[in-house]
Amino acid sequence: MALRIEEYALIGDCHTGALVGSDGSIDWLCLPRFDSASTFAALLGDEDHGRWLVAPTAAIDGQGEASSTRSYVEDTFTLVTRWVTPTGEVDVVDLMPHGDRRADIIRRIVGVSGSVDMHQELRIRFDYGAAMPWMRQMPDSGGNAVIAVAGPDAIVVRGPQLRAAGHAHVSDFTVDAGETVDIVLTWYPAHRNPPEALNVSSRIRETETWWKTWASATTVAPQYSEAVRRSLLVLRALSHEDTGGIVAAATTSLPEHFGGKRNWDYRYVWLRDASLTLHVLLDHGFEVEADPWRRWLLRAIAGDPGDVQIMYGLSGERRLIEYLIESLPGYDGAAPVRVGNGAFTQYQGDVFGEVMLALERARETAADERDFSWPLQRALMGFVEENWQRPDNGIWEIRGPLRHFTHSRVMLWAAFDCAVRAVRDYGLDGPAERWEHMRDLVRDEIETQGFDVERNTYTQYYGGTAVDASLLQMVQAGYIAADHPRMLGTVAAIEKELLVDGLLLRYRTESGVDGLPEGENPFLACSFWLVEQYALSGRIADATELMNRLVGYSNDVGLLSEEYDVAGARQAGNTPQAFSHLSLVRAADAIASAMSTAPSEVRETLGA
């Protein structure tokens, strides 16, 4: 069975990523892209579905005689695991080299003290565990390289000599103090020859330099600086180097509710998530790095505005047909395992507001609208004008009846608002008066149909009585002030109805609104939104208290998944989750801003 979700660390090359367990096993890897079929999938089954273990023999012989700690080399995704055994200590250095358009994993074992017996177990299973490869020694390698081939995929592994052991290949070797042993796995198309061996030391240096140089482009406030820097690095790691697309997470089908069916594939680019990521990158000085995403967005949504989707593939692929993977039993039996995501066919009106807000933020930092950026935005607004009254599936991809979700209506208001500012403030051409009129129509509708006067709260959807955590984004969109009486009333209702053990649910699944079986854990991004709301409305003590708790849910290397199971004290859902990390950054920024203007006695009370 796979480890707890928080026991995995990410390594990546900005094309794909691998999850390395605290036991030294790589249990998830898709090559050569995030959305490729898996090579190792023990995460969604067991070792027979593919894994790559490198650890001291003392750690896996059942005696429990080895312990480990791990950390990233500062501002990189080089993972160093220090193993302590009765006979000595070793460091296992795991990374994916960046920048050479190859798909490699380096596993370097460095002797620290004494002498440590090591064990390697390699189980390659292509195509989500369904394809066992043909394994053979690489000619003229002296037995130190093996090749695995199945269909279009091939892998060469160079390092200590492997031998067949059932359906695995294993090796045993000893590492003495001061000694270094390198193992390198390389994927390549099966119809080509194996790539040349790496110069491991130089690729480690070059990769670490690249990550550190990237991270040096920003400065962060002292509050939560370590968590913010790691979150920004996660957002970069989830961004595809060539296309600019930003995946929502590195995994598929990790359950939102353990043992349940809410298991989705997040290895795609949601317009909403990517738009919010662009905001965060720009706010932290990454103008150059954000431009590839902007270009990805403009390419993806180009064409008939009526064809705009809520999500795309890494290169802008539109057909993300959802199907079930029968070869994988699911994480701890949580089935089904899904590939693709049927939500790509949904209409979600809020994405137009998120896209317009993101492109407006880009306009503020770079005047270049490009030849088709503003014309494309005008075309989108033409579609919004014709379709703003349509009910939709909402931000949470409801698979129940279409409704007028208040959050979606607010984001449509934001789309009109952005379009008006583009004309009024930036001199771009467009029917500003008509857009102003339609913006005001949407606002009037929201205030009359999306607000419960008796309860003093906005509602999840028109005609309903429930609330939704997405209503917290009304402030982020500029629709209403954080301290407006109607917003404060909404926050009170959200706290009353959606707080569970101090964390926020997205909405009450038992209401049946989503057309799925009830049950999920608190959604971490929603709780970060609440932190942001607290900070913006002057509740700084509440903001910091909740923020401290949320940051504490990060694992030992600073990663967050989608949700958190408070009762089980464990992470849940796909990991690492871009939405969680970008929301962490926003929340930290809000606290820093609130602290900077708070009276000195407030700052002293909070230790700032």
What does this 3D model show about the protein?
With 608 residues, this protein is α+β, with helices and mostly antiparallel strands. Helix content is 34%, strand content 21%. It is built from 16 helices and 25 strands. The protein has a 15-stranded antiparallel beta sheet that branches. The chain has a two-stranded antiparallel sheet with strand order 16-17. A two-stranded antiparallel ribbon has the order 18-19. The chain is globular and about 75 Å long. The protein starts with 7 loop residues before the first strand and ends with a helix. The model has no long low-confidence stretch (mean pLDDT 94).
